[in-house]
Amino acid sequence: ICFLLFAVLYIVSYFIITRYKRKADEQEDEDAIVNRISLFLSTFTLAVSAGAVLLLPFSIISNEILLSFPQNYYIQWLNGSLIHGLWNLASLFSNLCLFVLMPFAFFFLESEGFAGLKKGIRARILETLVMLILLALLILGIVWVASALIDNDAASMESLYDLWEFYLPYLYSCISLMGCLLLLLCTPVGLSRMFTVMGQLLVKPTILEDLDEQMYIITLEEEAIQRKLNGVSSTVEYQTVELERELEKVKSKKTNLERRKKASAWERNLVYPAVMILLLIETSFSVLLVALNILYLLVDETAMPKGSGGPGIGNASLSTFGFVGAALEIILIFYLMVSSVVGFYSLRFFENFTPRKDDTTMTKIIGNCVSILVLSSALPVMSRTLG
């Protein structure tokens, strides 16, 4: 079951990445192999991130199904051990992707082999492994020094053994902490940006936008760029490439406007207001739930999260309203995750990080996969803490 679920996520992740990955020119066999390996590792990481996001809704819906049909023969495979096993696998693979696979993919992509060695895949793998070992030693040294500064008796081999025994299980918690800080920064921005994003995707009513005027303006822009392109000498290659790129963008906008202009009356006058009202309700409900839960945590000490101790899967409903409440929780979880991703790419620091269709380098794809992994690892913690 775990393999089938992951296979589906891997296939979906592969199609998503190939949609945004820049179509490379003809490359040497060596560079093509390196790009392919980095692509597979990035796809694996994105699939793990998707699995981490889906695990919390899957756990909620599984709990409600087990409560509704406790003795059903066809759902005997759905039990607490399966859910806990999936969470353990998500934790393991998240650590593996963040600390091993993604650094390997980045260094492997940037490597050229040591000077004096014969160029090839083996030389690049050797350089990548050396870089990973040096990075691991650097991080271990920083932790060693930090532990020695905190504890006067820690600068001994025993502290290193303690570090190896107790530090590694908490790596995922460290990732979740970084992700929580990032989510706290991105989610409010994303909630406010969701209205703008949906407004760009949907066709607005005629009273809110004049498509004829926009078509007239975009046509003038297209004609102006075309005249510049015809007047530029063929020897000025840089200007020609820039103008052709601008012309493609203008043509894309024009095509989008033509599609919006052909939209039916019900799509223009009904879908847009309905979606905006739905977004407003979801945003208000999310903010209200978070505010109430924070107030409850401040007033009642017993409401604080107590770790993994709980009623267990299939023993008690996680929502006061049963199946309907669980469905609302799942919708809000997905809404918060989408909002956090939108907010992440809306931040000025990460604007240039936004993937573009057929024009995203492999290095940017690796960075995006790491960012999504960190955000997804923090989602369960944030959902549990903020209610």
Automatic annotation (TrEMBL):
One GO BP: signal transduction
Transmembrane is among the record's keywords: yes
Cross-referenced Pfam families: LMBR1
Protein name: LMBR1 protein
Entry's transmembrane regions: 39-62, 82-109, 129-150, 170-191, 270-298, 318-345, 365-383
Alphabetized UniProt keyword annotations: Membrane, Transmembrane, Transmembrane helix
GO function terms (MF aspect): transmembrane signaling receptor activity
Biological classification of the source: Eukaryota, Metazoa, Chordata, Craniata, Vertebrata
InterPro entries given in the database record: LIMR (IPR008075), LMBR1-like_membr_prot (IPR006876)
Membrane is among the record's keywords: yes
Similarity section: Belongs to the LIMR family.
Tree of life domain: Eukaryota
GO cellular component: plasma membrane
